[in-house]
Amino acid sequence: MNSLLRTTLLGSAAAAAFAAPNLAAAQTADAPQGETAVSEIVVTGSRIRRDSFEGPAPIAVITGEQMRISGYTLLSDALLDLPTLNANLNGQNSAGTSFLAGQTRADIRGLGAQRTLVLRDGRRLVNNDASDPAVDLSQIPTLLIDRVEIAAGGASAVYGSEAIAGVVNIIMKKRFEGFEADVDAGVRQEGDGQEFRIGGLYGARLLNDRLSVMVAAEVGRIEPILQRDRSELYPGLRRDNGNPQGVVGASKANISPLGVFQIRQGAVNVAYARDVNDPTRLVQLSAACSTVVVSPTCQDPALIYQSQYAALQSKSLRGIIDTHIEYAIDDTTNLFVEASYARSRGYATQSPAFVSPQATAETVIPIFANNPFLAVGPIGPQLRAAFLASGAAANSPILIGKYFDDFGGRDTRADRETTRGVIGMNGALEIADRDVHWDWYAQYGRTSAETTHYNVPNLLRITQAVDPVLVAGQIVCRDVAARAAGCVPYDLINGGSREAALWVNANAYTQQRIEQSLVAANITTTLFELPAGPLAIAAGAEYRKEESAFGQDALSASGALFFNATGVRAGQYDVREGYAELRIPVLKDLPFAYDLSFEAAGRVADYSTVGQTDQYRLVANWAPVQDLRFRASQGTAVRAPNIVELYAPQSTSFAAANAPVQDPCDRVNFASTTAAQQAARRITCAAAIPGYNPATFVSNIGAGRPAARLLVGGNPNLGAETANTYQAGLVIKPRWTPNLSISLDWFKYNIEDQIGTVPTASLLQTLCYDSSAAYATNPFCAQVTRNAAGGVVQINQTRQNIAKVKLEGWDGAIAYSMLPGDLFGGADYGSLAFKLDATWTYRAAQQNIPNVAYTQLANSINGGLPEWRATARADWRMGALSVGWTGHYIGSMIASTQFTQTQLNPYYTGDYYSHDVRAQYRLTDGVVVRGGINNVADEYPPSLPETYTGTGQGASIYDNGGRYFYLGASFKY
After folding, report:
1. Does 11 have pLDDT greater than 60?
2. Are the C-beta atoms of 59 and 82 separated by less than 8 Å?
3. Residue 949 to residue 959: CA distance in whole angstroms
4. Per-residue pLDDT at 167 exceeds 50
5. CB 177 within 8 A of CB 201
């Protein structure tokens, strides 16, 4: 084998290894033997130009080519191959959201998308939502991505606010000649969840190569997956009422599209339902289904499973046009212009509007014996007879549980348009025999969005329509004014008419606008020569203004609809910043000092909201020998509050259905607590609930019940979040084993003044009902409002600088590439590349409120952070063919830290493994075909109520769609 071929194969193998998801970074390895050294570059995490990939911190890299060969149509899915990236917002957990449908986000180490700074070529991107500001990764054209560099660790000293957790820097292609078309299509084994992406890229170099033009366009589509279409996940799972709470199949619901009628509640429960299998029949429910909260064993065939409405993956569409133009004014000065336009549409799926039969619920509608619909239709007389036979008092109400299917699902369509323009210059000049590199740019970004929330009925009109009276032999609405306005009575018993549904039903609309204006300038040079090399410096300044507005139509903003009244959110702030960065080479090519250098960076910012913030970072790199390098850094970071956190008006919301708020006073929750908790709750619950009896009280909130209503809002007096970050590690690249790289890095974050709200579980349990403080004077208890029956009306949650977080762990990576033929006499068997990345997060502790113990969230589903996570990759290439495998490991996690191990069984999820396989073949120099299977073993999330759908914040780290087949092709000329 000649040396050129050998070098080429080893180079391609090394490239495959380091293009794989990588915690230690491409920067941790020198160029493979036989390759030329790189020219001066800038690596993510620093603004200083350097002549090697050795940056100040570990960098993970994913290439655009790797994304495509792995079958990913969205950047966010590719990032999840990295153990250091967590699921934040994706197609699984946005399927039931009100405003975020279709968005995908990056989240380093589970610290939140708002603490992960997303950059494009080192420059900020405008946020894509005004209700929960963050960057939507789906609006980045994947065909233009050269690579993505992820620097985990506080980078605020270099890049500014939001970089507490780290930076995701999307490096785009800058120059391209010719035309490229790329297409991907995939489908789940069950024939749903289809994904499609097609893109085109054109580039040309004109005017004697002085002008470079690139234009790219891309469209994509993802189809939904419904829970009822997965036998593995439907109808679902729930916890039983045992101690410990076990896992049983999902029970039927006492809310039905045809109606469940609770005739008697209390010591004797009598309930009937209109049979979903035969709407002309009224059937009496079994004892397990007749209670106000159905028993875990309720399986009456006349009822439905709530999960028939649930989506596992949302539908989304997107289209993007992107342009990059560079013009060389002279040999050292360039002018560049970028322009992009992205349009997306996301869909979210929720159940139809409903009323509950629970007397403590806020959405309760009674039927009285004088209701004229009891005398008509197939069900009215049957229900009247059942009522008379039940022994219920003549004036007692029949409470109904009903989904208004005839209104349609409360689905959401979110339409967004994002435009971005950048103009700038960069260049190099020589001053005092020193090369000086400079750049400046100005950019403007704008997102406009409109969200339509379908089938959210008018609450007043429901009240009017379900209160009928008989007038002159006709059933009409009792309210005379409503009748005159066109009110049509709604028959809750036999089913409402289309006219009644049209009278009651409505849509809600929201509009959003987000704007970002930014001007920045940077300069980097060397000041003078030291014995070990030049002392390098970078400095710059930036001005940025952020504006956003969020509003509702007048009807929904008034609270008149079955929808959260969020009102108007609007505000702005600006910031002026300056930074400097220094690299000092100390020793070079000496015994036990092959390389020793120090780096320092500092940044000062002046916000119009929180005032001045200061950040710094110190870095040390020491290579005693060429094969071993130690690196360490310590720094501070900040995150200024965003516009929503500052200026959002107080409004009502609802707790997530997949993470229901539990009422500590409920009889089940009371019974499952310790003796000390029960003693405290006997006092506090009695003070909150008239006539409280811990053995009989059933709350209106909890699993299988209506979601708790929350009062949320902003706080203009918020301060900045602050953090101290630490990193220390080593990189081994032994000369005696070429193309082997081993890295191990320890990380630590201490975050203070984190913006948030007191978690409802902590508020309800630790701070209020389990507290020994007097209920009447406890400020936390005052945040919980109950009605006369004891039902929870509202929980007050507003933002504060209240929490602290401590995060610690280790990142490790091993990469190796080889020529198998070397083991067999030099025959040509292609090249092999292996890569293993792992993260061990042994501590992720949060102090939600001052002066209480930290809660360990690492290794828990509700913390959303596995203790152990790893990705392994193997690639074989020979000629035009490449074949690869990727394995994913997620360690066993605690199902819920709200319970102890003695209260839940099972308590742990168990270890999770999944595997992907892929192949690519180059038919010609310009034609490549590829295909593969992701989740080959058809694995679903762990079979626990807390995880099995994969739609919760923590559970969405698991793939919930099953086996996925994909094909793709690329054409260049």
Report:
1. no
2. no
3. 9
4. yes
5. no
Contact 12, 875 (CB under 8 A): no
Tokens of 364: 């309760």
Local confidence band at 28 (pLDDT 50, 70, 90 cut-offs): very low
Torsion of CA 642, 648, 650, 652, to 10 degrees: -90
In angstroms, the CA 710 to CA 797 distance is: 7
As a whole number of Å, the CA-based R_g of the chain is 31
| Helix-then-strand count for the chain, H and E | 14, 44
**Coil, strand or helix at 572:** strand
Q: Are 137 and 104 in contact (CB under 8 A)?
A: yes
Q: Are 711 and 796 in contact (CB under 8 A)?
A: yes
- Sheet containing 116-120, strands listed edge to edge, beginning at the edge strand earlier in sequence: 60-63, 145-152, 166-172, 116-120, 123-124
From 823, 865, 862, select the one nearest 844 (Cα to Cα). 865
How many angstroms separate the CA atoms of 511 and 506, rounded? 17
- Looking at per-residue pLDDT, the higher value among 647 and 963 belongs to 963
441: helix, strand or coil? strand
Spatial distance between the Cα atoms of 748 and 153, rounded to a whole number of angstroms: 8
Amino acid at 653: S
pLDDT at 5 over 60: no
How high is the pLDDT of residue 20? 36
DSSP 768: I
Average pLDDT over residues 733-738: 92
CA 357, 361, 362, 368 torsion-angle sign: positive
How far apart CA 76 and CA 72 sit, in angstroms, is: 9
Place of tokens 């930290």: 854
Alpha-carbon distances, residue 709 vs 118, 331, 792 (angstroms): 33, 64, 8
**DSSP calls for 45-57:** T--S-BSSS--SS
- Looking at residue 168, its amino acid is V
Q: What is the pLDDT of residue 265?
A: 79
Cα torsion 943, 945, 947, 949: sign: positive
| DSSP-assigned letter for residue 113 | G
| Distance between CA atoms of residues 426 and 338, nearest Å | 14
Q: What percent of the chain has pLDDT over 90?
A: 75
Measured CA to CA, the distance from residue 300 to residue 275 in angstroms comes to 10
Report pLDDT for 50: 65
Of 851 and 367, which is predicted with more confidence? Answer: 367
Measured CA to CA in angstroms, residue 811 lies from 544, 743, 744, 808 at distances of: 34, 8, 6, 10
Q: Which residue has the tokens 């799972």?
A: 237
Buried b (16+ CB within 10 A) or exposed e, 863-874: bbbbbbbbbbbb
Amino acid identity for residue 530 in this structure? L
Note whether 715 and 798 are within 8 A (CB): yes
User: In the 3-class helix/strand/coil scheme, how is 493-504 assigned residue by residue?
Assistant: CCCCCHHHHHHH
CA-nearest of 267, 106, 251 to 698 is 267
Residue among 68, 73, 59, 52 nearest 21 (CA): 59
pLDDT higher than 80, residue 56: no
The DSSP bridge pattern shows strands 628-639 and 721-732 to be antiparallel
Checking if the pLDDT of 512 tops 50, the result is yes
* Tokens at 926, concatenated: 């310009």
| Amino acid letter for position 9 | L
Give residue 267's pLDDT: 80
Dihedral sign (CA 779, 780, 784, 789) = negative
